[in-house]
Fold these 3 entries.
Entry 1:
Amino acid sequence: MKAKIMKFLRREEGLTTVEYAVAGSLVAAAVVLAFTTLGGQVEVVINGLETAIGG
């Protein structure tokens, strides 16, 4: 039983999967942050245009 556990812990395929999951999560968080910031800036520009037009 101990040998099976040690063999499982030495396997690197699982670790690679976890690393990809963490990297994917970080990329997703960066994309959400970028779109949130960009959305706020676009809203400011649209409101400025609306004010300039007189709407």
Entry 2:
Amino acid sequence: MKTTELVKTWLSNEGFRYEIDEDGDLKFRYQGANLWVMQDPNDALFLRIAMPYIYEVDNDRAKVLEAINGVNAEMKVVKGFVLENGGVWLSIEMYIDSSPDIEDFLERCLDILLAGQRRFYDKYRSL
């Protein structure tokens, strides 16, 4: 079963609404944050949960890169990066087994993304 199907089932069971875009990616809100579960058509066991565009780089690229590097160095699982267009994203990317009990870890992953966002903002403000 594709990871997006597992997440759709979890979201439905937990009462979350979601949308499916033209690529088959799931878009939903969790505690006020916009999140995407992006499928990889070549790898059914790869789970990518993204928090897109948490910040837009202006004339502060070095400061943004330092803050996001701090998040990457200090936090488990979460990965932050800056896109070519200047948007800062966070994601969790992991492999799961063929019959995962997604209830055991999905909510924790979502909470880690929220914590990563807070950590980025705190680090950015402290620089």
Entry 3:
Amino acid sequence: MAELITIDDPDDPRLSDYTGLTDVELRRRREPAEGLFIAEGEKVIRRARQAGYEMRSMLLSAKWVDVMRDVIDEVPAPVYAIQPDLAERVTGYHVHRGALASMQRKPLPDAEDLLGGGRADLGESANGHSDTGATVPSGPQGGAGRRVAIFEDIVDHANLGAAFRNAAALGVDAVFLTPRCADPLYRRAVKVSMGAVFHVPWTRLTAWPENVELFRRHGFVTAALCLGEKSISIDELAARRHERLALMLGTEGDGLSVDALRAADEWVRIPMAAGVDSLNVAAASAVAFYATRL
């Protein structure tokens, strides 16, 4: 059972995991370095725990203590009960969901391991969880017909969280991030994804676009979403029913880099109407994932 501790000092060192949550640069450096991330809201906290992440501590306003009582009773980590105004002073924003938890990160799986088998094998351990903490469902076709996503340099946490939610909802087997992508476990990305970042196996590539060869070696066709003249439509790509497909989506504004486009096997576009040239990257991912589903 967790220890319930009432705190009334915003400078209490026990609250250090929760200080300055609005400072993106601080969190970008600190959270990965210290091996922590912040889960916000009852549902997200529960999904993180269900995915096997270890809780370091929990921060609750008084009215959320009863709501989270079962979690308090189950975890050994300390639970800090504070007033809403104090929570705002500590975190830097109004914690309207009333519940925060500091969670321990897990080591990321190797990209080679994620590509080695079917969805049932993607990073799965003996207890049914992936190395990223996600429960990995078994697909009826094993390694055949698998789809993965590669996100290049997506820096907006809301876009990244939304893209992860799309991947989870539309059956994408794994997500690969280039080195400069935002952190999927940053608080806003986790929140926007509604915890989907816990349920899609993912890892970060070490070299890009050189790592395209890794996908090719595992039998994947790499399809880059872009507006190039030689791009085929997403419907044409889907009709080809590639056995293994890696969908590449680029950063906000500029899209995929020239080097990534050169490395891709196919260029693909989503047909637009009414003079609109493209979609937001998160919206484009949803369309691409839906169109290429099996």
